[in-house]
Amino acid sequence: MSNFLPLSERNLILTGDTGASLAAIGQQIASSLRKPFVSVDALIAERMDLTIDELRTYFGERRLKAIEAEIIQETALRRDSVIYVSGRILAQAEHRERLADTGPIICLVVTLDIILQRLHVSMGARYHNPSDRALALGELRREWGVRGQDNITEIDVSYVDHEMIMQIVIDTWQAQAIERP
Fold first, then answer.
1. Could you tell me how far CA 43 lies from the centroid of its own chain?
2. What is the CATH number of the domain that holds 62?
3. Which end of the chain, N or C, is less surrounded by CB atoms within 10 Å?
4. Are strands 105-109 and 152-156 parallel, antiparallel or unpaired?
5. Could you give the 3-state DSSP secondary structure of residue 56?
6. Could you tell me whether strands 105-109 and 82-84 are parallel, antiparallel, or unpaired per DSSP bridges?
7. Predicted confidence band at 181 (pLDDT cuts at 50, 70, 90)?
8. 156 touches 107 (CB < 8 A)
9. 152 strand-pairing partners
10. Model pTM above 0.85
11. Which domain holds residue 139?
């Protein structure tokens, strides 16, 4: 991460697929830090008045990537915010680097067995349909594309409650955002 921004202007970029609502955790962290919350996926959906899946279906992957690039460019101009962005978008090096220049990127992860258990619960009977399950696992694979990449700090929150997740994320962000000599 570049430390060209003063500490008071650095963003906290949050990503990961914990099976729980990471956007909700991001909103709680933003509220706790008294910072604005930005969801890149919500900005894309709002701009196009379609969900990301609908956008991909109606206009194709190329158009989705173009809109993602526009939104990331605009989001990188924000300061002193908590930004939630999907791993699918951050897997693209140019997007990851652009956002990393504005603050630390923290990826919350859980073990695969927990993800599959939560996926089973959230999908219900659809989990037993091989094509529905394959779609869900494909989305998970895209989200996990960001893991192990440069400029990403991974935190395993497999057995941690929401309050503790918030505290761990805030502490990690503060430690990484402080300028080092």
1. 13
2. 3.40.50.300
3. C
4. parallel
5. helix
6. unpaired
7. very low
8. no
9. 105
10. yes
11. 7-172
